[in-house]
TrEMBL record, chains A, B:
Organism from which the protein derives: Pseudomonas imrae
Keyword Transferase: yes
Entry EC number(s): 2.7.4.16
Keywords for this protein: Kinase, Transferase
UniProt protein name: Thiamine-phosphate kinase
Organism lineage: Bacteria, Pseudomonadati, Pseudomonadota, Gammaproteobacteria, Pseudomonadales
Top-rank EC class of the record's enzyme: transferase
């Protein structure tokens, strides 16, 4: 038996590969088989993480296992889908039992938190990279898309912005921070929490939704374009953690919130009437702006002046050469 | 707009990305949405091809486009599934418009032949590799698996074996061959034809099935193990093309058929009573052996003597370091 066959057996024995509701056939045949309840559709998303591009190499394989799955599952949250299953395509230059074990433990931890099962994949030799394809269930016609924002809606996010971008100098060992600050920022970077429950709560309420992976300004542009509307973001409403503010100062923290990537919190639009019940139920929803007729995204200050940065392109870790 | 955003738009505009039956939402949102008819299950398979490991680099991007999809769709054929959709995760070190255009043309050509639509994926910078995840539909309970072969069944394949392995010295420019030989062998390597129609025809008839990707002996071992049976392969029944025989001679041709990879023809078991109707309908089915009680795979000569090679491991191109 080759070492890659051993890897396959290793993942097949992982706790998250032991099946579950909706998984009619798991790892081990030419295909896995998924079953959907009548009246539901399957949501599908694929994400690739490349070593040295999307994550530092070497890095802690447990944290990488958590992060690689969380990033992909966040797309299910953004559609208001219930996680069902995922496949993992792992390309690795060498086979290290210790690395694999810790990677699989991180993957398992996130899989159990999200309620999602590993049903297959591929294992190949080559430069380290990971491609995860995630599957979720959503009642037909109820998926949240980017295309329904209406003038008059409020623009909201599901939590603080910029923490993961703030963590980047720590991840890359370019700076240090007191542990009270570093712990929060690094947790956001390495263990983003897909906002699955919030996604479900937004079904039938949000007019559009997506998850923020490339930064608030860039991703807002996707909703503005798909919905053919203009989004106005109010700078003073950007939710910033005390730790991010202490670490970066106000100006840099705002920049991280606007253009930093890897937040993986939901960005969505709501008719104003839907807002109060969500807040009353305790959802961590923050209004950051509004939807108007027009196109594009503008950032305004407390006086309503347009202060949109001309360069929205954040040098995302994964845009590095 | 970054160059990777341009690639995404490029694929989104491809003919094979224009939706189809069962595709409720295609490229462009956080997830694609697939709809399944009542009573059907979704078959899912993921395959990765790494440059320099699974294919020579550089190579013709049109041929790579065809091959990368065919290899993945072959797993749907092996389950008796109808192709529905696929995602493409493309990692590339540089963005070449010419390369992308020709790759997409090859992908399109195979997608149209297989009736499958591109619904999403990811595009990232890094060492060249391709991960395709394919989705198919199959009536609940009718998928062909590796696990149902019964003693008394005949062991069959869906066509000639060893042609793709025979093509390898040509692909790697280690040898040359007359065009009448080279054309057939290279066609099997670069444009494998997923046996989708045969897979559908085998529903309710075959007791087990898979596609041959790692070589007949190795893949027969998977059916033997999953079905808890012994498979007996008769050497003189191995179907070999005249071109392969002319190129390699009988002994090497048999070796390519037994241990060469990349055939992508179906390997399956049938009760003998099911055989005649399939042959009468014109399916290219060849009996190569039988199923017995026991375990493992044995190769026998015309006198019934065990001539199983001790080293079954073929040095598959994708097992190269």
């Amino acid at each position: 038996m080759g070492e890659f066959e051993l890897i396959r057996k290793y993942f097949a024995a992982a706790p998250c590969a032991q099946g579950g509701e909706g998984i009619a056939l798991g790892i081990g045949d030419d295909c896995a088989l998924l079953a959907l309840p009548v009246g539901e559709q399957l949501a599908v998303s694929t994400d690739t993480l490349v070593a040295g591009v999307h994550f530092a190499d070497p890095c802690d394989p447990f944290l990488l296992g958590q992060r690689s799955l969380a990033v992909a599952v966040s797309d299910l949250a953004a559609m208001g889908a219930n996680p069902l299953a995922f496949t993992l395509a792992l390309t690795t230059p060498t086979v290290s039992a210790d690395w694999l074990q810790r990677y699989a433990q991180g993957l398992n931890a996130m899989a159990q938190r999200c309620g999602i099962g590993l049903v297959g994949g591929d294992t190949t030799r080559g430069p380290l990279s990971l491609t995860l394809t995630v599957f979720g269930r959503v009642p037909s016609g109820q998926a949240l898309t980017r295309g329904g924002a209406q003038p008059g809606d409020v623009l909201c996010v599901g939590g603080d912005l910029g923490n993961a971008a703030g963590a980047l100098p720590l991840v890359l060992s370019q700076r240090t921070a007191p542990s009270a600050i570093a712990e929060l920022l690094l947790a956001h970077y390495w263990s983003p929490q897909p906002q699955l429950a919030l996604g479900l709560a937004l079904r039938g309420k949000a007019t559009s939704a997506m998850d923020i992976s490339d930064g608030l300004l860039a991703d807002s542009g996707h909703i503005a374009k798909a919905s053919v509307v203009r989004l106005v973001i109010e700078q003073q409403r950007l939710p910033l953690s005390a730790q991010l503010l202490a670490f970066l100062g106000e100006q840099e923290a705002q920049s991280a919130a606007l253009s930093g990537g890897d937040d993986y919190v939901l960005l969505f639009t709501l008719p104003p009437v839907e807002l109060a019940p969500l807040l009353a139920s305790g959802w961590p929803v923050k209004v950051i702006g509004r939807v108007e007729q027009g196109q594009g995204v503008v950032l305004v200050d407390h006086a309503g002046q347009d202060i949109t940065p001309t360069n929205r392109g954040y040098q995302h870790f994964h845009e590095a050469p």
